[in-house]
C-alpha cells in the first residue's frame, strides 16, 4: 500500500535534485529541499439530518490509512446479543468497489473470542479475497453486529475476520496479509451497489487447515448498511467538501445512510444512472464518452486517483503512469446511460494537474490526479470524482422516490450525482 | 494398465483443476481436455508465429497466446469476476520470478492494480469486485 507513495516521493526528490520539475516545486541545488507547508482542508459541513459516519481522508498514521486519497471510517463490531461487548476500529477503508466488512482479528481485542464462525457441514467457513495489486485477505467468516455512526445492523451479519493464523492461508490464499501494517488498512467496509460479495469472492470449508472450495456458502459477507434500520438501508449518500486544486491535508466527508429518506440524503436536481451489467455479468456503470471514444466507467472510492485507458496527457518522468501536464488541464467527459426508463446524460467536468508537483506539496487529498493504466478498458472514476460532490447510490434490489419519481428496485442499483 | 491409469488420472486432474500456466504446452488436444460443463476453450486465431486460444466460462474469459514453434504459452490475458490466481497463471517458476519483481513493482495502485516488469516477465492487473479484473502476463523469453 505504501509503495506508490515511495515511488512518487523518489521521483519528486529526483526532480528537485535536478533543479527541474513542474509548477509548485522549487529549491534547485542551493540547499536542502523544504517542501511547502500542507494546506489545511475546509471541513465538510456536518449533515443537518439523517444518520451518518464521519469519513477522514488519509488521516491515519504508521502506514495505515495514510496514503494519498484513502477515505476511512471507524466501525464498531459487537458480539451478537451482547451490545456491551464491542470493539471500535478506526482506519477502515470506505470502499464502493467491494462488498462487506473485513477487519483484522488482532484489533478485535474484546470480541475476538466471542464471534461465532460460520459453519458448513461441520467445517468452518473461510474466505479469500484477492486484490489486483497482489494483496489478499484471508480469514474465517464470522457473525457480528456492525455499528457505524451509532447505527447498528438489525441482526448479526457475516463479516470476514482477517487472520493468517486461521489455518489454510498458505495453500488457499496467496499473498494474504498478516497485519494491518502489511495491508495498509485496519480493514475495509465494502459498500458498493451489490448487497453481498456473492460471485466475486472465494469461500472455503476448512477443517484444521484442510480447506475445500465452497460454493455457495451458507451466507455471504454482507454490506452492513443493507441491514441497517429502515430509512437508512436503501443506499448510501457520500458527501465530500471541495478540495483546492493544489490539494489539501486533513480532508473529510460524511457517509449518510440511505437515499431520499431525510433532507441530507435527498438529491435535488440530479443525474440518475441505472448501473448496467456487462457481458460477463460484472456491474459496470454507464458509458463515458471521452477523447472521442466511449468507455465503460464506474465510480469507486477505493481507487485513489482517476484512471484512464489511454495516455491523453503527458506522463510524469520515469513513466509510472501518472499524468504530468505543465499545469492544471480542464477536461470534460460525457456520461450516458438511462435512469431505468429514459436516457440520462451528464457532463463530468474535471481537472488533471501535475501529479509530481501535487504529490510534492505535502498534501494528502487531491481532486485532480489522473493516471493511465493500459488495459483497464474503461474509466475508473476514483476518489477525486467524489471530492466536492454529493454522490448517491441506491443499492441493488432497493428503491427510492426522488423528486416524485420512483426508481424501482433494479439488478445493480443506481448512481446519482 | 499402469500407463493407462496414469494417463487417465492425468486427464482427470486436468479436468477437475485445470490450469494452463505460462510455459505450458497448449494445443487443440489440450483445449479439448479443458472443456467442461462450465467452460469452453477453442482456437480463435493463428498464423505462422502464434496461435490464440480462448477459454470462456461463467467467471469470465482467458486468452492464451501460444508460440507456434514450441507450442508453449507465452502470454495469458484475462477478464474475470475475481482477481487472477497469479500462482496458477504464472506457474511455479514464473510466480517466484513475479514475487521477486513485485517487491519493486513498476506501478502499484493500492488494492486496484499492479504492473511488474523485470525485463523478462511482464505482469499487469487492474480491477475490483465492482469492476471485475483485467490482466495480462507475458514471458518475453517464450515469445516467437
Q: Strand portion of chain B, in percent? A: 35-45%
Compute the separation of the termini of chain A in Å.
Answer: 29 Å
Estimate the helix proportion of chain A, in percent: under 10%
Which sequence of strands runs across the widest sheet of chain B?
A: 1-2-3-4-8-7-6-5
Rg of chain B, rounded, reads 16 Å
Approximate helicity band of chain B:
25-40%
Derived structural class of chain A: mainly beta
Per the principal axes of the C-alpha atoms, what is the gross shape of chain B? Answer: globular
- Intertermini distance of chain B: 39 Å
Q: What is the tally of helical segments of chain B?
A: 3
The overall strand count of chain B is 8
What is the radius of gyration of chain A?
Answer: 21 Å
Q: Mean of residue pLDDT of chain B?
A: 85
Quaternary state of this entry equals heterodimer
- Sequence stretches where pLDDT stays below 50 over 5 or more residues of chain A: 1-30
Structure, explained:
- In chain A, the strands form 5 sheets. A 6-stranded mixed barrel of chain A has the order 2-3-11-4-10-8. Chain A has a 5-stranded mixed beta sheet with strand order 23-22-19-20-25. In chain A, strands 17-18 form a two-stranded antiparallel sheet.
- Chain A contains 5 helices and 29 strands.
- Chain A has helices at 3-17, 169-172, 180-183, 355-359, 383-386; strands spanning 52-57, 71-79, 82-95, 99-104, 116-117, 119-120, 123-130, 136-148, 151-152, 157-162, 187-191, 202-207, 210-213, 235-240, 252-257, 272-274, 276-277, 283-284, 287-290, 293-299, 306-308, 329-338, 343-352, 370-372, 378-381, 390-394, 400-402, 405-407, 414-416.
- Helix content of chain A is 8%, strand content 38%.
- Chain A is mainly beta and 417 residues long.
- By secondary structure, chain B is an alpha+beta fold.
- Chain B has helices at residues 2-16, 28-34, 86-101; strands at residues 39-46, 50-57, 60-67, 72-80, 107-109, 113-117, 121-128, 132-139.
- In chain B, strands 1-2-3-4-8-7-6-5 form an 8-stranded antiparallel beta sheet, covered by helices on one side.
- In chain B, strand 2 (50-57) and strand 3 (60-67) form a beta hairpin.
- Chain B is globular, with a radius of gyration of 16 Å.
- Mean pLDDT of chain B is 85; it is low at 1-17.
- Chains A and B meet through helix 1 and strand 18 of A and strand 5, strand 6, strand 7 and strand 8 of B.
